[in-house]
Amino acid sequence: MTASPTTEEMVEGGLRSSLLGIFINLSLALVKCLTGLIGHSFALLADGIESFLDVISSSVVYYGLRLAIKPPDEDHPYGHGKADPIAAAVVGVAMIAAAFGIAAESINLIRTPHKLPQAYTLWVLICVVPIKALFSRYVAGVGQRIESSALRGDAWHHLSDAIISAFAFVGISAALWTGDPTADDWAALCAAPVILLGGWQQLRRPIAELLDTAPAPEIEQHVRRVAASVAGVFGVEKCFVRKVGFRYYVDLHVVVRGDLTVRQGHVIAHAVADQVREQVDKIAEVLVHIEPEEELLGSHPGELMGEEVREAPPPSHVP
Asked: Which residues make Cβ contacts (< 8 Å) with residue 44, sequence separation at least 6?
């Protein structure tokens, strides 16, 4: 039976996808910018500029992932996981800046007479659109597996590049068909809001993660079920989960019998933490606080959370 890949191994896959993205984007950016300049197509040139931004964003994602996977140290006891959403935020800001820059230059060129684009520029775009669309899907899959905000943002950046290329193809075709060179510039202008929307959507996720917004409720529910199933736990009063990088940190308040010794409560707390780490994916640490049942439940200890009460180990079993 093949063992499941560790988080570190999956992040290595993310690093490889970022390096591949840097190489692809750099190659496409050079081709598109040169073809756009020689072929008098600002839509293609704008597409090439956006690809250069993709090179920068993929580089930021690469170094963000490398930093995020570093283990905790004396100065960073919770690890370096926040580097992942920070890298994602940089990608989102870069997309928003690109959208405004392309829109401004498109408006300027619409007002300024210039030559018609050359027909051969269309062949570059015919090749670019499927390459970028497929690569975006690949990066998105890697980002989904390791729950990386940075890789998800990078995938959207690749997709926006494919969208710009599609707009450029339509604009150049319209310019050649009508003899109006501004059709090419209008296509670049129409692509700008798409990039802006994508940048804003990608900026929201890392900001939420940096602010320790609660993850999907299914994760908390799973943690509660596992904790409540441990012998000696009457129920779970509080459960807080936050994402740091590629893993989750959990704070739990569990209810136990009020007449237990400190040592017995300590044993139960360790059992809860161990079970949560073993049964819930991507849990880094679990902090368990013990609550005595008298203070919360009075004479009805089994009512909390509707969980079945399981007896704690007797004192003789406690080391």
From this structure: 32, 35, 36, 117, 121, 124, 125, 168, 172
Q: Give the domain extent around 168.
A: 7-210
Residue 37 lies in a domain: yes
Q: Output the six-digit token pair for 29.
A: 């950016």
Structure confidence by residue, pLDDT tens digits, 39-58 = 877 667 777 777 787 788 78
Question: Would strands 247-256 and 283-292 be described as parallel, antiparallel, or unpaired?
Answer: parallel
Q: How many whole angstroms separate alpha carbon 40 and alpha carbon 148?
A: 39
Enter the tokens of residue 170.
């339509």
Question: At 142, which amino acid appears?
Answer: V
pTM for the full model? 0.67
Residue 248 · residue 282 · CB < 8 Å = yes
How far apart (Å, rounded) are the C-alpha atoms in residues 241 and 226?
A: 14
Looking at the structure, tell me whether residues 91 and 170 fall in a common domain. yes
Q: How far apart are CA 154 and CA 202, in angstroms?
A: 9
Query: How is 211-269 classified by DSSP, letter by letter?
Result: TT----HHHHHHHHHHHHTSTT--EEEEEEEEEETTEEEEEEEEEE-TT--HHHHHHHH
CB 68, CB 80: distance < 8 Å:
yes
